[in-house]
Amino acid sequence: MTAGQAASLAARIDALGGLRELVELPGDHDLAPAQWDAILAPLRRLQRTLRDRLAAALTARGAAVADRLGAVELEVGAAFGAFDTFADVLTQRAAPRLGRELAGCDALADDALRRPDPRLAALAPPLVYCDRGLGAAILRQGVHAGGEVICPIPLIQIPYARLVDKLTLTSILHEVGHQALAALGIGDELARAVGELATGHTAADLARWAPEIGADLWSFLCAGPAHAYAAVELFALPHAVALARGRGPHPPPALRVELALAWCQATWPRGPWAALAGRWRARFDALAGAAPTLAAVRRLAPPLARATLSARFATLDHQPLTRLFDLAALAPARLATLGGAAFAAARPCVQLAALRVATTETPSAAVARRATDWLSSLRSRRRDRPVSPGGFRCLI
Questions:
Q1: Do 232 and 108 fall within a single domain?
Q2: Which of 206, 254, 341, 385 is the most exposed place for a label (fewest CB within 10 A)?
Q3: pLDDT at residue 384 above 90?
């Protein structure tokens, strides 16, 4: 029994190093080298650790051998929890069209993360995959990936519907925002900055909503008008849902839309934001019962927009978050004329913004075809960059 169990453990430990060979992705769908490095390096470290523990277990005497082999069984099981997660995620890349588009999503996510701060540069390039659900989500680098395993790379989950309507891929930018703000360490300061705008229950709500407000702000700073237009579309919900405060981390959807438009208004005052807000509000104003809550949301959005754009953070050398971004590149007038070589040279987030602005003048079907070609072409822009050591750790 001991010999058979030891042989089985050795075979499974050896298999931990074979993830790339197992999924065998085609060259044009494959991950960027830096993504593979982020995933495989910690698996190989685990492999070496488990080999050492297996060897140590076999040096024990008597009944202690079986007990120590049992402990290694638990550790190998925990390691394969992470291995299986990445096997599931990566096999999506083998599908010809889906693989191309997910690689494009990786490039978009990496562009959202690639801002001038060494704490962001140290993060692995994100990996995007599809899963069921209504919204996007992220498993951040450095948090538990299941059991006692630490995630070595930002894993962003999107519903397949986002790939149907590619102009709502700002959801990816929002999820990147969660990773970026955690790496920059500004969560507590942001919560205080927004909580100071109100008193009582409203102040507590704002502090609780701060992480989601911050992630929305990151998306806006990456893609400007595209974030606002996507918010209007994604949160076109029944008024009972759009105005619900809830007890979770998310602000009422209506506040998220009003805030997105207020950021645009504060940044580009001559834009179409008032008209867009008017059309958005009209669907609620006809419902008499919605008026009091909606009025409070509308009053809160402009000061909240100004506060979040101007807040200075100690972890950013007492500078605002906007210093990491080029908002001039996202000006609607500039985006409307961005074409040809200028479009090709622009950052992926700016390209997404330009495609979204183009829908006001171009038939949506034509823009949808262009967006599909654009997303597939982005895979060539994934970066091969070094990342800081880290990754899986087995703590059992």
A1: no
A2: 341
A3: no
Residues 207 and 115 reside in one and the same domain: no
| Residues listed for the chain | 396
> How many CA atoms does the CB half-sphere of 272 hold within 13 Å?
12
Residue 45 vs residues 7, 38, 224: alpha-carbon distances, Å: 20, 12, 41
For residue 256 the two structure tokens come to: 């998220």
Domain carrying residue 87? 2-155
Q: What angle do CA 119, 122, 125 make, to 5 degrees?
A: 120
**Owner of token pair 């008017």:** 278
What is the tens place of the pLDDT at every residue in 236-285? 888 778 777 767 788 989 899 999 999 999 999 988 998 998 888 887 77
This prediction has a pTM of 0.90
Helices (H), 268-358: 273-285, 291-310, 332-336, 340-345, 348-358
What the block records as the tokens of 318 is 């007492």
Q: What is residue 390's predicted lDDT score, i.e. its pLDDT?
A: 42
Q: Residue 42 and residue 18: Cα distance in Å, rounded? A: 13
Residue 298 lies in a domain: yes
Q: What are the pLDDT digits (tens) for 224-237?
A: 999 999 999 898 88
Cα dist from 378 to 98, 121, 236, 286, 389, whole Å: 13, 20, 29, 43, 27
Assign 350 to helix, strand or coil. Answer: helix
Closest CA to 229 of 118, 324, 337, 353: 353
Average the pLDDT over 217-222 and give the result: 98
Three-state SS string over 220-281 comes to HHHHCHHHHHHHHHHCCCCHHHHCCCCCCCCCCHHHHHHHHHHHHHHHCCCCCHHHHHHHHH
Which position has the higher pLDDT, 381 or 250? 250
Q: Mean pLDDT throughout 291-318?
A: 87
End-to-end Cα separation, the chain, in angstroms: 24
Instruction: Tell me what the mean pLDDT of segment 147-176 comes to.
Output: 90
Query: Do 28 and 133 lie in a common domain?
Result: yes
